[in-house]
Amino acid sequence: MLFRQIFDERLAQYAYLIGCQATGEAIVIDPERDIDQYVKIATAEGLEITAVAETHIHADFLSGSREFAEQHGVKVYLSDEGDADWKYEWVKKGNYDYTLLHDGDTFKIGNIELKAVHTPGHTPEHIAFLVTDLGGGADEPMGMATGDFVFVGDLGRPDLLESAAGVAGAMEPSAKRLFESVQDFLELPDYLQIWPGHGAGSACGKALGAVPETTVGYERRYNPAIRTAITGEEEFVDYILEGQPEPPLYFARMKRDNKLGPAILGTLPQPRLLTARELVKLSGRIDIVVLDTRLDRTAFMAGHLPGSVFAPLNKSFPTITGSYVEENAPIYLIVEEKNLDEAVRSLIRIGLDHVVGYAEPDALLVYDETHGKLNSIEEVKFDSVKAHQNIHDVEILDVRGISEYKEGHVPDALNVAHTRLLVRHDELPSDRRLLVHCGTGARASSAASLLARLGYPVALVNDEFENWPRIGELVTGEPKLATA
Amino acid sequence: MLFRQIFDERLAQYAYLIGCQATGEAIVIDPERDIDQYVKIATAEGLEITAVAETHIHADFLSGSREFAEQHGVKVYLSDEGDADWKYEWVKKGNYDYTLLHDGDTFKIGNIELKAVHTPGHTPEHIAFLVTDLGGGADEPMGMATGDFVFVGDLGRPDLLESAAGVAGAMEPSAKRLFESVQDFLELPDYLQIWPGHGAGSACGKALGAVPETTVGYERRYNPAIRTAITGEEEFVDYILEGQPEPPLYFARMKRDNKLGPAILGTLPQPRLLTARELVKLSGRIDIVVLDTRLDRTAFMAGHLPGSVFAPLNKSFPTITGSYVEENAPIYLIVEEKNLDEAVRSLIRIGLDHVVGYAEPDALLVYDETHGKLNSIEEVKFDSVKAHQNIHDVEILDVRGISEYKEGHVPDALNVAHTRLLVRHDELPSDRRLLVHCGTGARASSAASLLARLGYPVALVNDEFENWPRIGELVTGEPKLATA
Amino acid sequence: MLFRQIFDERLAQYAYLIGCQATGEAIVIDPERDIDQYVKIATAEGLEITAVAETHIHADFLSGSREFAEQHGVKVYLSDEGDADWKYEWVKKGNYDYTLLHDGDTFKIGNIELKAVHTPGHTPEHIAFLVTDLGGGADEPMGMATGDFVFVGDLGRPDLLESAAGVAGAMEPSAKRLFESVQDFLELPDYLQIWPGHGAGSACGKALGAVPETTVGYERRYNPAIRTAITGEEEFVDYILEGQPEPPLYFARMKRDNKLGPAILGTLPQPRLLTARELVKLSGRIDIVVLDTRLDRTAFMAGHLPGSVFAPLNKSFPTITGSYVEENAPIYLIVEEKNLDEAVRSLIRIGLDHVVGYAEPDALLVYDETHGKLNSIEEVKFDSVKAHQNIHDVEILDVRGISEYKEGHVPDALNVAHTRLLVRHDELPSDRRLLVHCGTGARASSAASLLARLGYPVALVNDEFENWPRIGELVTGEPKLATA
Amino acid sequence: MLFRQIFDERLAQYAYLIGCQATGEAIVIDPERDIDQYVKIATAEGLEITAVAETHIHADFLSGSREFAEQHGVKVYLSDEGDADWKYEWVKKGNYDYTLLHDGDTFKIGNIELKAVHTPGHTPEHIAFLVTDLGGGADEPMGMATGDFVFVGDLGRPDLLESAAGVAGAMEPSAKRLFESVQDFLELPDYLQIWPGHGAGSACGKALGAVPETTVGYERRYNPAIRTAITGEEEFVDYILEGQPEPPLYFARMKRDNKLGPAILGTLPQPRLLTARELVKLSGRIDIVVLDTRLDRTAFMAGHLPGSVFAPLNKSFPTITGSYVEENAPIYLIVEEKNLDEAVRSLIRIGLDHVVGYAEPDALLVYDETHGKLNSIEEVKFDSVKAHQNIHDVEILDVRGISEYKEGHVPDALNVAHTRLLVRHDELPSDRRLLVHCGTGARASSAASLLARLGYPVALVNDEFENWPRIGELVTGEPKLATA
């Protein structure tokens, strides 16, 4: 048996390639959509991917299962658990070779057996896979691919159904289902390896560790959520629903598409290289989105194409693009050629497929010389915020999450989480200048670019919020503008 | 003024980027079809390409002018010289911004003036461009982009019209027109730089030097063809038509497409990554072409996908693919991912756009393990050729050019130039084994793969022909099979 | 806690980076000698490596502990178990910050505790490390770094002390000690993760799996060696000593140097680029070694620098170079520049530090044109072997391992394992031509190059041994030349 | 004949590789010190470099001739013209194969003849090389490698002897010698190609064009300096000495070392990777130099290792490092690994060989977390300059060149060119805060870092000087602090 854990650092997502060397066959569990990454690894190991499986309908990325089925004709294994709202619809519509799994169902990849275990909670249809290396002489499983059920030191959050998918009242029942799943989990043997669907950095859990694997026995002993589940249901439900971070808005879209079937890519979108002259045609338009992927915040503020969004190609890229780009909007990138592939992959992994064109940052200079002025956004420090506090034509906008805001904020600051600005910006005044801040300037940079794009007069507070208490009063409590 | 000579080593082709730094504008003369290469260079220099020009209707690669016009809306400058058969047709049909040039016409790129000079011979409509740096204070030209008129130490061959485009009786009139063009060239001032369209390695001339630029005065003194033209027309015509190498067959297609307009690419074709299983579907098919780009001849002979053509990704790649792949055939590549872009660019530059899929060489191993046997072709040395000479079921096939064959060959060897096998293979016996040789084994390797693909029983003589005289008799004279 | 398993594919070696994010400290267990690889990973994770530890005195690669101590002043944790022959000597001689560990000793890296467990068998001083994430709230260990004690599906071989280090009569006592260590291992809780020192491909065990981690409980159930240990000591000793592959000869050197202290590198050796002219000075010399790292066997045989050794830069590179290069010999490489770093790292990892110069393969062509002829080695197939069998001036040399030979070989074939040729070649006749074969041609290619270097007349049987039975008689039994 | 112009974009320097394909020999004219770059190109072309030549004792980079002679035993061709102060000393001291050339001397590389032509002016010993392709049948030269004599559109400045080498009163005699050399140049035939030693961007001339080559005839017509030389000596001397930019101070060192012999490198210096802990030992020290090569000015100002110099790895890198780093100072780099080779090459090309260690930028974060605070330098805009103008404890420091200063500056601003700060900083007040500006913030960024390193209280005016006139008064005239 060959086992490979494949990590997407930006989404903190783990896929698993499991292959039988005797027959040359392999399966991928929870593939991302750019499936060539898995084919390359398998081929280099002398294996062929003949099947894919999903643990559940993902909310944070689009699944590659349909792409695999369409391109390579692989067999697809999906959950048939959960109620009517949680059925994979796409797989029944094409000419796919698929099996819908119920709790206890097994299938084989070469001499390796996979067994589905229904583990609802994070989602109703969630299954995990027990993997048994029959070819290696085993008759008990080696490990369990747990998807978003059990993470290293955490559990998959059961509130997404309500907070992201918008199903009111779903949180508590989900938490109770998760409680039951944990009880079953506790029946598993201690020695079993746990192969989770996410690692540190994901928005799918609150305390994911930077250790890639764990075991049933270790989690039984030290996973705080599981420990609470041992105590009792009520304690567990309280514990698990408390303080979960706000999920990005694009999660709802992922759910929908993973159910109905993500569009077939075939190959990656291949944006066309643009010249400065073509940037003219994109300048200031809001029916398309220009994503400026440069890392340097100050360089962006000093000069960027009018209407462009600051989306630095770092770990926040999926969150920024998933929250700031409207579905189906044609996307143009300001990106260095060497980073283009990486940017495109990040976008299509969350369903932003219409990547039409790109220009290298140098083209902005040609634009500026030849065709028109670049936009700029003023940068200020928190001492300017203090200075402006009593001036009527200025508002302070805090784009941190509501929980951060409540713990301490600038007096009279407005609050809209940066991930919700796209849908909530009209709650903001448009006749006064907005001084936009967050905790470090990172989120505020992107937020300021979005507000400028939408026509608001803005300045960026490019400063650490921890400097504020030395400058002005820190107040606690509810925001002036309510969050969703 | 900014001047950049841009070399395509595989086609030995020079394009020129000439820009005016004062206005930020630039022109490309004789661009290839994958125009992003020029846009990147221009952008990095702070320039925008606003125009393209062609010296003539190229025969050895597809021009990028139409692509530029379509994608970036640049102005196009083309020749309107030559008779009705030599008119650019595509430019009149689209909504293009173009100017058709006659001898003496001038236009400007920023503060740089280009002047068309009609220089027929290589082709009837051929023009060259005199470039004057008005912005630099000059009122005389700095250099001349000569296309396929004057090379360093050679002239563009006037026989292609007949030998490649198939216009019978065209050679001598063309040679005479070239003679006249040379007379005009000799009127130009000695100091003028000459910027040719090809360097060493191209099939467009017979003795191209490995020096990238020259001057009128130097060529007047030392260019053997020009020296002969100084002697007299008759001597020149004899000289220039003698011993030109056979042009690849795909040249005719290039002429046609450059006239009618190469298809618009938009972006490069993006072949899909295939798994071993999908190779099964390609195995042995002759309605598609699998090009195996590995460099190692022996590895190919030891095991390759049935029906695949050996097309190592070296300098011979355009000749092999241009001669062995039928127009519009869907193309699949066996190629390492890191070389994929290079392979695709090489293909589209000669109009082979249908690059549908690719697999990495490792996938052949998976195929061999799992799905079926790879093909092999036996390798022998010239001593085996000797041993087989009197055996009835074997023929020796010499795939060198006819002039090489005439100078000395194996007794009774058949001769078809490897570049003509695709159209002439039915002249070969199919009931006897063909021992295929060339001068070194390089051309014979690809030829043997093609013949195996077409169903002929073959073995490769992987040996240096210079070893033959020590082994057997060397005879001279005409081939048993006539060349076209 | 941050956990990273770092794999060297060529040596199938795992090092472990374990860090405490709260304090920014990290440790590396079993580092290789080119320690920059670990520093880069740690730095990117925001950690600083402040300590290193070793599980035992390695035999298959040089440890990076001393390098770490010398360069970065890190704390060193080493075993003080085992008898006087198995003491780390280097650490006491420098000005190092070190702790010698006995069974049960603990130390901390930030909030992570490591506990040494004496696990003799593979070597007398072998320890494993139990890792407890105190900062994560645990009071029991998460996993055990087992070094060469427990692998996934195997145990570290206890015969190396005798077979590689040359301690006669050591095998059985070592096997018994290993039996005891396994008994202690069986006391550990099932849930514990096992982080082994080697994966599939290493010469340190016989059946290593391609799964990177395992657990105590799983190994208890399915590790065949451990299963046998549960049965009884006698069965275990028989089992564990049977059929272990012959260790490469360089293992003895590794043991010595890891004990006395590997030389300090500071930075990687940086070979100088050579021109063809300088290759002349290297041609045919046996006081230096030219390693030709090209992958293409046939290309090497067709032309190589006289005296050079065929050492293709694939997974066999450490075995070939460790067996064919004499200690302290100045090394020159024929290598493409892009692979130079990889080749140098592979060499220094096994103590071949004197990498003086390199030339690119193209330089061989210049050499051949300008300075002298390249050598060639004839390639034959097994049918030639058959044809030569009764000819007096030819001997057939089988360079496979003795166990392979015994299972079936060509009648009258000599046998010396290719890894022992350097010390045993004078057992071979030098007045007759040697036809060198192995199972596939891979080992024989390198062996033939070594024999040619040493002055023997050779030809390479570049063929699969599985073809032999169709051609000639297959006999079993002892070799004509005894192995060591 | 093979001809290759090899460009170092950072130093705007051209070397020339000229080879004879018939004999496989090649020469490099004016090589840089990292000679592997030329060996690689030659080897790929099937050539061996057997000789090197220099046009003159370079002032802006260290020559690679000695390195070539030492490493590869090539023949060296150097000028023996000029007086006793301008003799190459190194070549006579080793066991080198060399020829000292006088005007008219010829030598051959294969079938190519080179002829030395004494062309004093830029320097007294300056020679140019006429290159004749005898093998190509020529008996007159094809081109002239003119070194720093004739550039495209300019001449090599004759003032360096005085302004950089410090020989008082040398300017005018040099200019007259140059005048004479130009007269001789005008005797050359128009057709001759001119291959200059520098292109656009070099400090060796004032108006270098972005065209890589030219001809005698074109320069005769349009080179303004040559045009003036045609008018008369007096006009020429006035013209050529007027307005030459101040040469960097390190030029004097280059002259000395190119005469006495640059140190032998053997291989490139190989700095050791440092951890954050080791940065502690470098913090604040002025006996070593830490060069921070990040491109992002604002990131450096926000946090950098105390004492480090801002030296972004762009085209200004040689000027900054050549002006800010004291000879023989041990150098440490903050640099991304992928740029390390490029940074090291740039340093050794100007004789900064003691590159001891490097850390990746991420290590600064680890340092900041674990070991100590990074330094910061405040950034202000010109409006703050205005606000501070009348405050006693602040001085405005303009680090532009004196000619820029004279054309318009902030009232009462001090002036020291940034390239002279290292030797002139004690002219500055150390008890008042210095607001450091230049034209764009680029030069001022590096200058501010140097001043902070030297203990001055500084702030950076990160603003365009063209904004100043809208804010405050622009005055002209001499600086308060005189330049050297």
Overall description:
Four copies of one chain form a homotetramer. In chain A, the strands form five sheets. In chain A, strands 1-2-3-4-5-6 form a six-stranded mixed beta sheet, with helices on one face. A six-stranded mixed beta sheet of chain A has the order 7-8-9-10-13-14. In chain A, strands 15-19-18-16-17 form a five-stranded parallel beta sheet, sandwiched between helices. Chain A folds into three domains: 2-260, Ribonuclease Z/Hydroxyacylglutathione hydrolase-like (Metallo-beta-lactamase, Chain A), CATH 3.60.15; 272-370, Oxidized Rhodanese, domain 1 (3-Layer(aba) Sandwich), CATH 3.40.250.10; 378-470, 3-Layer(aba) Sandwich (Oxidized Rhodanese, domain 1), CATH 3.40.250.10. Chain A contains 19 helices and 24 strands. Helix content of chain A is 31%, strand content 21%. Chains in contact: A-B, A-C, A-D, B-C, B-D, C-D. The interface between A and B is large, with 36 and 36 residues.
Number of domains of chain A: 3
Number of continuous helical runs of chain A: 19
Question: In angstroms, what separates the terminal alpha carbons of chain A?
Answer: 48 Å
CATH topology of the largest domain in chain A: Metallo-beta-lactamase, Chain A
- Determine the mean pLDDT of chain A: 92
C-alpha-based Rg of chain A, rounded: 24 Å
How much strand of chain A?
15-25%
| Poorly predicted residue ranges of chain A | none
Shape estimate of chain A:
globular
Give the neighbour order of strands across the main sheet of chain A: 1-2-3-4-5-6
